[in-house]
């Protein structure tokens, strides 16, 4: 009896092998297509255990501008109304922070009795310095800002009736001025924090209602307490510039 050994594979095995080959080619085609799509800028993003960190934008200043402003403030000094007029300007960074300078002067007459025994005197005063300002929500029509002035100033006492003094006296040099006209004077340091409610009137103009508190240090005026000129001020600021 002849026994024939069959070496051929059964039909089902050949069919399975063919299916695997077709699936392999199909998978390779998909990989190539996806890589081409990725290089073209698709949203495909592969998650890996070791990832390359994206570089952060280290740019600190994204925008800048500038402004100038005039200010009128009211206060009470020695129980009398005092008017301070001044101006300031600043460099605006990223729409929400500014660095600049400002200066203010007492614009009306404020009398002090008891400084000199024989007569009343009037106060002269001015100050200025660096101004830092933080602005919240500058894009809103109404928003808040917080200015801070750090600087120094000068204050002095002069005759109560200045016009009569200049009419009756011929002052020729500074020594005579100090002796006859300027009774007492002193420099001082000042810190002045404040808050402003700002209104965007139009693109290049802002109107602000402000309140601030003046804190003086090192004031040494004749017969005057060192914190006599400290106090609250309130007023209005008008700004023009590129915000």
Question: What would the keywords be for this entry?
Answer:
243 residues; alpha+beta; 3 helices; 9 strands; disordered N terminus
Please provide a written account of the structure.
This protein is an alpha+beta fold and 243 residues long. The protein is 18% helix and 49% strand. It is built from 3 helices and 9 strands. It has helices at residues 11-39, 162-168, 174-181; strands at residues 64-77, 80-93, 97-106, 111-112, 121-136, 142-159, 184-202, 205-217, 231-242. The chain has an 8-stranded antiparallel β-barrel with strand order 1-2-3-5-6-7-8-9. It is elongated, with a radius of gyration of 39 Å. Residues 1-7 and 27-44 have low confidence and may be disordered.
Give a topology summary.
Layout: H1 11-39, E1 64-77, E2 80-93, E3 97-106, E4 111-112, E5 121-136, E6 142-159, H2 162-168, H3 174-181, E7 184-202, E8 205-217, E9 231-242
Antiparallel strand pairs: 1-2, 1-9, 2-3, 3-5, 4-5, 5-6, 6-7, 7-8, 8-9
In percent, how helical is the residue content?
10-25%
Order of helices and strands: HEEEEEEHHEEE
Number of helical regions: 3
Strand order of the largest sheet: 1-2-3-5-6-7-8-9
Oligomer, anyone? single chain
Proportion of strand residues = over 45%
Biggest sheet details: 8 strands, antiparallel, barrel
Which structural category do the helix and sheet elements fall into?
A: alpha+beta
Q: What gyration radius follows from the Cα positions, in whole Å?
A: 39 Å
| Low-pLDDT segments, ≥5 res | 1-7, 27-44
General shape: elongated
pLDDT averaged over residues: 81
- Per DSSP E runs of 2 or more residues, the count of β-strands stands at 9
Q: Span between N and C termini?
A: 108 Å
